[in-house]
Amino acid sequence: QVQLVESGGGLLQAGGSLRLSCAASGLTFSSYTMAWFRQTPGKEREFVAAIRWTGHSTYHTDSVKDRFTISRDNAKNTVYLQMNSLKPEDTAVYYCAAEKSFLLGERPIRNKDNYNYWGQGTQVTVSS
Fold first, then answer.
1. Is 90 exceeded by the pLDDT of residue 103?
2. Mean of pLDDT values over 29-56
């Protein structure tokens, strides 16, 4: 079965950096669109970044542009989220997601309801 396992979360001060990893198994990784979402208590899970199977097309939500970068290594079945200049408002549980069907356009790729597979999440806490 498909498994997505996130790692790399932690507690750090504002301005610091973290790299999240999501190791995938049980799927043909290079055929999947991969994404990162995040969620805080009482709020909906929100889109952070996504990358298509080729790795050439990436999408980032406006609040993280120029600070976060999504990338993938198809040889390692792993997707990454490099997070720089972290802010307290980035505090959340970060989830990895995968979807095989082609999501045409940016709007579908940002919609959590279009992803069939999810990891268990990793906590990122940024103190001021």
1. no
2. 95
pLDDT value at 104 more than 90: no
How many other C-beta atoms can be found within 10 angstroms of the C-beta atom of residue 16?
A: 14
| Two structure tokens written together for 101 | 């069907």
Cα–Cα distance list, 115 to 13, 19, 54, 91, 108 (Å): 31, 22, 18, 22, 10
Beta strands, E only, 14-116: 18-25, 33-39, 46-51, 58-60, 68-73, 78-83, 92-99
- Report how far residue 99's alpha carbon sits from residue 87's, in angstroms, rounded to the nearest whole number: 29
Decide: residue 13, CB within 10 A, 0-12 exposed, 13-18 middle, 19+ buried: exposed
Q: What is the pLDDT of residue 102?
A: 85
Compute CA distances 48 → 26, 56, 83, 96, 112, whole Å.
24, 17, 11, 10, 10
Q: Which amino acid is at 73?
A: D
- Rg of the chain, C-alpha, whole Å: 14
Q: What mean pLDDT value characterizes the chain?
A: 96
